[in-house]
Amino acid sequence: MDARLITPVVVGAGPVGAVCALALAQQGIPPRVIEALPADARSDSRTLALSHGAQLILDRLGVWKRLDGVTPITRIHISQRGAFGVTRLSAAEVGVPALGYVLSYATLSAALKQALHDAAVEVDYGVAVERIDPDADAATVHTAQGSLTAPLVVVADGGRAADAPRPRLKHDYAHKAIVCEVRTELPHAQQAYERFTPDGPAALLPLPDPPGAYDLSRTKVRERSYALVWTAANAAAERIAALDDGAFLDALYQHFGGRQGRFLSASPRKSFPLTLAYTDSVASARVVRIGNAAQTLHPVAGQGFNIGLRDAWELASLCGDHPEALGSPAQLAAYARGRRADVIGGLGFTDFLVRLFSNDIPPLRHARGLGLFALEALPSLKTFVARRMMFGSHG
C-alpha cells in the first residue's frame, strides 16, 4: 500500500466497520477499509439479534433490502424461573412493525460486503494492523504491507489490534454462553423469550425453519426453530455443552420450562466467555474506537452489537456534519460526549440485569417478581423499556 494521506481509514470490515464505512461514503467521505481476514474467509456462524433501531440504520444505507432469512420479533416474553412475575413486550403496543429481527452473522456480512463493493469503497483484505501511531495532525496505520496516514482512523476490529488500550473497566462474569439452534414442539409465532434463572439468563430467538422441515403428514410445519443463548457458570457451562443431544435437550427443558413444549433437536453447541469491558480511550488524537473495540457487554437483552452499530452511525453523521474538521480533537471529543450516555447506559443496564437476577436470594426474588408485575401493569413503563432496548439512550 502507498504511504499516502487518505480520508479516513477504517480498521475492520466486520458489520460495525462496514456500516461505518458505508455511512461515511453516504456522507460524501469515502473511506479506505483494512481487514485482517482474507476476502474468502469463512463467516462467523453465530446468530444476531438486531434492534428496530439497527434495522432503521441498515435501511438508510440500502442494506436491509439485500437481506434474506430475517425473522421479526414481534413479542418478547420475560420471566424468572421458580418465582412469580411475567412481562410481555409487544411491537403493536409500542407502535413499531417489530421489536427486533434475528438473522445470521454470515447473511449480514455478505450483504455488507456486497454493499461496500457497490459503493466503490476500497477494502484491503488480508492486511493485519501492527500498530497505530496517533499524532496531532494525523494518525499512521502500520501494516506488514506498508503504512497509511490519515486525519482519522476508526478502529472497528473488535479489539484484535495489537496495540488495543487497557480497558478502564473490566469484569469477568466467570460465566460462559452456550449457543446453538434448537427446534420445539410448538411454533414460535415470532416470539422471543428471556428467561432469568439463578444460574444466569437464557434466551430463545425465533428463526425461520430450514428448507425441508415437514411433519409426518408431509404438510409444511409452522416455524419452530430458535437460536438459543444459555448462560451458566464456567464449569457448569462446560458440562452442559459436552452433553449428548438427548441429555442436553432434557436439561434445557428442565432449565427453561415447557412454554414451547418439548425441545426436539439441537445443533452442535459452541460456548464463549462473558465479560464486561469499557475503555475511556474511545476517542484520542485522530483515533476513535467503536463497537467491541471500545466496549464489550453481557449478551442479556441483546444490546452490545446494536450499540456498536449506533457508534458507527453517529460517528459518520458527525463527520458528515463537519467534514472540514475530520478527526480533529474537538470532533472526536464531541463524538465521545455524545455516545457516553448510550454506551454507559447499555453497560449499566445489562450488568444490572445480570446481578439482579443471577441469584436465589428470597427478598430479591420477590422484589424481582414485583418489578416484572409492575412492568406488565404499567404501559408507559413497558414502552420506556422497549424503546430503551430498541434505540438506546435516544429512545
Which secondary structure elements does this structure contain, and how are they paired or packed?
Layout: E1 9-11, H1 15-26, E2 32-35, E3 47-51, H2 52-60, E4 71-73, E5 75-80, E6 86-90, H3 91-94, E7 100-104, H4 105-118, E8 122-125, E9 129-134, E10 139-143, E11 146-150, E12 153-155, E13 169-184, E14 191-196, E15 202-207, E16 225-233, H5 234-242, H6 245-256, E17 263-266, E18 270-278, E19 283-284, E20 287-289, E21 295-296, H7 304-321, H8 329-357, H9 362-377, H10 379-391
Parallel strand pairs: 1-2, 1-12, 2-8, 5-14, 12-20
Antiparallel strand pairs: 3-7, 4-7, 5-6, 9-10, 10-11, 13-16, 13-17, 13-18, 14-15, 15-16, 18-21, 19-20
Helix pairs in contact: 1-4, 1-7, 7-8
Can you offer a commentary on this structure?
The chain is an alpha+beta fold and 395 residues long. The protein has one domain (9-169, 275-394): 3-Layer(bba) Sandwich (FAD/NAD(P)-binding domain). Helix content is 34%, strand content 28%. The protein is built from ten helices and 21 strands. The chain has helices at residues 15-26, 52-60, 91-94, 105-118, 234-242, 245-256, 304-321, 329-357, 362-377, 379-391; strands spanning 9-11, 32-35, 47-51, 71-73, 75-80, 86-90, 100-104, 122-125, 129-134, 139-143, 146-150, 153-155, 169-184, 191-196, 202-207, 225-233, 263-266, 270-278, 283-284, 287-289, 295-296. Strands 5, 6, 13, 14, 15, 16, 17, 18 and 21 form a nine-stranded mixed β-sheet that branches. Strands 8-2-1-12-20-19 form a six-stranded mixed β-sheet. Helix 1 runs parallel beside helix 4 (105-118) and helix 7 (304-321) runs antiparallel to helix 8 (329-357). The longest helix has 29 residues, at 329-357. The protein is globular. The two termini are 42 Å apart. Residues 214-219 have low confidence and may be disordered.
